[in-house]
Structure formats: C-alpha cells, structure tokens
Amino acid sequence: MDVSFLYHGFGLRTVECSRTEYKDNGIVLNVQTRSDKFRCPKCGSRRIVRNGFTTRRFRGVPLGRKPVYIDMRVQRVKCHDCGCDHQEHIPFTTGKRHTTHRLERLVTDLMNIMTISEVAAYLGLSWNTVKDIHKNYLEHNYASPDIRGVRYIGIDEFAVRKGHVYKTIVVDLETGRIIHVGDGKGADALDRFWRRVAKLGVKIEYVATDLSAAFISAVRENAPEAKLVFDHFHVKKQISDAVDKVRRSLYHDKLYEGNRDVIKGVRWLLLKNADDIKGDDAKKQLQQALSLNEPLAKAYYLKEEITLVWAQIDKTDARAWLYGWISRAIRSGNKHIVKAGMSMFKHREGILAWYDHKITTARVEGINNKIKVMKREAYGFADDRYFKLRLLSLHDAGITAFV
Questions:
Q1: Which residues of the chain does CATH 3.30.420.10 include?
Q2: What tens digit of pLDDT does each residue of 7-58 get?
Q3: N or C: which end of the chain has fewer CB within 10 A?
C-alpha cells in the first residue's frame, strides 16, 4: 500500500504496509516501521540492533462503515551509542493507547455535535473509549484556563444534584469563558482561583455576584481593589422572597382567615413582574388579593418599585431613590420587608456600583441554563473531573450529552 495513502488516509507516518486482510467485517492493516526510519527512541542514533518484537493492535479511522484495525510489528531496539534497550517510538499514538491520533481527532470533532453514545455507535467504539479520548483532549486543552488579562468576572453557584451538592463557577464576563470550577458554594470553593490570581498578578477590576456573604468576603479579602456589583436579578429575588414570606405569614394570621384561598392562589402572580402578567382574569385576581390585604399590597408595590433603582439618570439620582425606597421599606412595619430594607442599606454600594460599570451576572445565568441542559441530558455525572472539564470547555462547544 502506498505510504502517502497510509499517511493521508490514516495518519500513519514512517511505516509501510506489508499485508491487508479483511476479517470480521473490518479491514486489518499489517504495518511495520520502514527500515530507513529506524532510530533509537532515546537519542535518535541509527546505530541500533533489533532485539525482538511484539504485535500491537490499534483502531484507526474507519473506511465508510467498516472499522480499520492496524496491527503493528513493534520492534525492541538496543542502541550502541546510549545503551538504550527499549521499544521503538510509535508516532501515530500516545503511550499505551489503542487508538490513533487521527481517530482521536475525529472523536473530538464529533463530540461537538453528538453525544458520547452516538459517537460510540457511529465509530464502533465503546462508550468508555470515547469518553476517555474526549477527557484526555479536554485535560490537555482546558484544564488550566489562561486568566491573564481578565478584568471583569461573575461568580455564581449551581446545584449539581439533589442533596445540597453545589459547584461554584467564575466566568470571564468579557469572553463568556468559565475560568474556574470549585466544589461547594462557600468561600473555600474559590481558594484555588484566588491563588492563581495572586500568582499571575491578575488585576480584577469588577466582580458581579449575588448577595452571598461568602462570595462578598472572599472578594474583599483576595481582591480588595475590585469593585463589587450586585446583580439586578439577585437583588430583586431577595425582595421577592420577602414578599412571599409576607404572604405566608398572612395566610396563618387569624385576621385574614376568611381570605386564605385568595392569598394562597396568588403566589406566582405576586412574584412575577407586573408587566409579565397577561390576561384580565389574572390581573383581577391579583388586585383582589392586594385590596384585601394591606401588608401584602405594601410589600408587593415595594417589590415592583425596586427595579427603578436601575432606571435613574445617574448614580446620584439612583442613590437618592434607593435611600427613599429603604426608608419606605423600614416604615412599612412588616418584619420581612424591614429586614429586606436593612439588607438593601447594607449592600447599597454594591447595588449602586452598577452605575460605575454596567455589568451583571446575566452571562453567568445564561451559562447556568446551558449547564442545566447538560445535566438533564446526562442523568448525572459519574466522573466529576470530566464534568469540570466539560464546563471549562463550554464556551467552545455545543451542548452535548454525557451518555
């Protein structure tokens, strides 16, 4: 067989094919290193003696639907110059793997558009072989993201599975890359990231995050010059949670015993933005509940008004408006809303920092949605390291399942 065809078709360099066989609906290429290419695997000398051989089988790129097997006669050589007594170097594979580099590249390309199971079925490989090939590729290319030059980051956590198992991700908000994946949702989940930041001298300028005390303290301790920007969504969620607590407390209050059905049935209407409520019946139901419960009405309208803090002309106007909102929340007299108002006062600088640099965790939330799709299709993750590598490569690949 022509040596050019061996290279261009299967990626086999420095070998010649002595025989071709057709067995078990596959093609078997019997190859060996060309005599003029024999060298010492250690020093490259040609002063060598062949010292026995063994035959190794490799999987190559298929021809159509037919699998290709490469049976190579691997020589053991002894070098007169350096004294090395070792098997010859095989240029088309790595170590003890049983797949060629050309096939591995095909697998990684297909993994951008197919699942592991689909790639395995298409190429006639085992599920574990495909996963291991892809894992090795990800380990080599994505295990240590380059964080030099990163200025704006977003931090968020997500649930891996039920049972309070979480991971924390750090995203470069300028490129959309996940640059760190940590275990848990505490400050220690970011320890390795901060060590790399210090080692490389990275200057983080802005950090978008939720109101997590752990994340806030971690940023202030490890990047004291960075400005915290608290995300709109998480600020509004804290107020929405307070509104729901008001609703539940009223449900159990004897003063509103006759209106319990009304209070119970409007939970999702209370949590929605007013502009997102469609239909006259839904709007009427909400207004009925608010008219019957003054504390609930106060809480609801404060929740709707908080969004205006990000609609002011400048930071000065926004500060004045936020202070007014906090004052109204505290004067409401409801313990849940008062607590939310005090929280807004405590985090006021991070809320208003949006006017200095308009970043949010929206990009992070978008990535979290992709992660949810991956988890839903994968039915869980048996290999935690592989899962982390998939997250680190998410910006370069389509969403493909793990099964």
A1: 152-231+360-396
A2: 888 888 889 898 999 987 899 999 998 888 888 888 888 888 888 899 999 9
A3: C
Q: Other C-beta atoms within 10 Å of 223: how many?
A: 20
Nearest Cα residue to 214 out of 256, 192, 184: 184
Record the pTM. Answer: 0.80
- 204 and 197 in contact (C-beta within 8 Å)? yes
Beta bridge partners, 86, equal 77
Instruction: Give 86-124 pLDDT, tens digit per residue.
Output: 888 888 998 889 999 999 999 999 998 888 889 999 999
Secondary element (H or E) of residue 334: none
Contact in structure between 158 and 169 (CB atoms under 8 Å): yes
Burial of 84-115, coded b for 16+ CB within 10 Å and e otherwise, reads eeeebebebbeeebebbbbbbebbbebbeebb
Residues 6+ apart with CB under 8 A from 185: 157, 166, 167, 168, 212, 214
3-state secondary structure of 282: helix
> How far is it, in rounded angstroms, from Cα 171 to Cα 188?
17
Beta bridge partners of residue 79, listed in sequence order: 48
Spatial separation of the C-alpha atoms in residues 353 and 332, rounded to whole Å: 26
Superfamily name and number for 152-231+360-396:
Ribonuclease H-like superfamily/Ribonuclease H (3.30.420.10)
